[in-house]
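On clarity, I found the account of how folds are encoded harder to follow than it need be. An entry of this sort, consisting of the sequence and the corresponding backbone structure tokens, reads as follows:
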Amino acid sequence: SVVHVGASYQDTEGGTSAYGLEAAAVFGALHGQVEFFEADNGTTSPDTDGYYVQVGYVITGEQRPYKGGKFKKIKPSGSNGAVEVVARYEDGEGDFGDIELDATDATAWGLGVNWYVNNAVRLGLNYTDGESEVSTDEGEEIRARLQIAF
């Protein structure tokens, strides 16, 4: 098992401040990560904040390595590869009135599956649903990915 908790804070001479909190954990085949951030430039805008929560489970039993503050790739232990299911939820908002983007507040959630064919090849399929909390904008995405690592 691995548990990681991190925090950061920045405060510049120009009045901009930002901080973030992060936690990640691995318990056997189950892994997860959560992060919160907030930034304030010391004036009325742009100010931003948001968070995400993501979890994954390797149904073939492998463990996702975590080292140096980063998740590493899953290395399949069997000849049929490793299969991972994942879920994510995120929310963010910002007031960008001074730079003609106005205010935004959006959420998204997603589900996916990854097949680690071997140490160099990964196939992924993800579904994401997102929507704005300040307008009628919304959308869905299905994304397929082939990754080859050298």
User: Anything to note?
Assistant: The chain has a mean pLDDT of 86. The chain has one domain: 2-148.
